[in-house]
Amino acid sequence: MTDTTVTTLVAATGREPAPEPASGSRGPRRKARTRAAKEPRRKITWDRIWAQRVLLAMAVPLLMYQILFKYVPVYGWAIAFQDYKPGRGSIWNQEWVGFENFVDLFTGVNGERFRRVVINTVGQSVLTLVVGTLGAIVLALLLNEVKNAPFKRIMQNITYMPHFLSWVIVASLASVALSLPSSGGFINQALMAVGLVQEPVLFLTEPNHFWGIVAGTSLWKELGWNTILYLAAITAIDPSLYEAAEVDGAGRYRKMWNITLPGIRPTIVVLLIINAGWILSTNFELPYFLGNGLISERAETIDVFVLRYGYQLGNYDLAVVAGIFKTIVAIILVGSANLAAKRLNQETLV
């Protein structure tokens, strides 16, 4: 840029133009983009397939599992469009009724009950997801700050162990913990000891407590296990960032807020996108084993509804409609969460 041009720009805008970058001083992103554009894309050839035959052979069992148990049963969706009766023979010998089952499930005599179980499912899933995610992140941050290695391993083992208990056992433990003090309900004992309540609370007979019971029980069981990915993401953060922040006078909490949390943000976003697809597939065992007639209006979920009203009463077609509804909603939620993350320039699945 000549001196005459600079003088003209200064007179017109009142400020000097930014200096031009020196030749060959392009940024790393532009260099990487240029390098990637120049490199030819490697084609999949039989030589490459043969060279990776061991890895491909290891993937075959998992691929077969997905095909047999995830894709082959999809043909059973035809039941949703039929008045299905097992005694009529095969699935293709049934009476076709079009979308009559869909209308019956959403707006018919079962519509009000199904809408209620959808609300229960979403409420329990969202509360469990929020509490579980926040708890796992906080625990990962705290464990990362522990400098005593033996104590850290002991704490990790203690928090991991409940994950290996079956949900049936966990539901039994939760039932005992929430019972009356005379039956071993230590939660009521603790609440009465600190003066928060004057008399025992019948947790499993009051509908408004059930969502919190599900979220708290799931948090206790999966808290330690959910921290594994966050701890792994923390270990991938460059240690020099902490050293530079410490030189600048940053304290422990400031380093967690400005370095650790931004460093694991891609992991948090990806896990939230994945979990979005499970919003309507909340835990089945807790609502089934802890629920009862007194709290069914807040405890019954889609899976429990399908079991009790669908399979046990022989309404197979309505059960399949509920399953299709869950699948479609899951696809929409995952796609929407992935698109939102992409719009916000965050890590995405695809």
Description:
- It contains 16 helices and 2 strands.
- The chain is an all-alpha fold.
- It has a two-stranded antiparallel ribbon.
- The longest helix is centred in the middle third of the chain and has 35 residues, at 111-145.
Q: How is the topology of this model organized?
A:
Blueprint: H1 3-13, H2 28-38, H3 46-51, H4 53-71, E1 82-83, E2 95-96, H5 100-107, H6 111-145, H7 149-160, H8 167-177, H9 186-193, H10 210-235, H11 239-247, H12 252-276, H13 285-290, H14 296-299, H15 302-311, H16 316-343
Antiparallel strand pairs: 1-2
Task: Provide the descriptors you would attach to this structure in a database record.
350 residues; mainly alpha; two-stranded antiparallel ribbon; 65% helix
The helicity comes to 55-70%
Question: How are the strands ordered across the major sheet?
Answer: 1-2
Strand content: under 5%
SSE pattern: HHHHEEHHHHHHHHHHHH
Quick description:
With 350 residues, this protein is mainly alpha-helical.
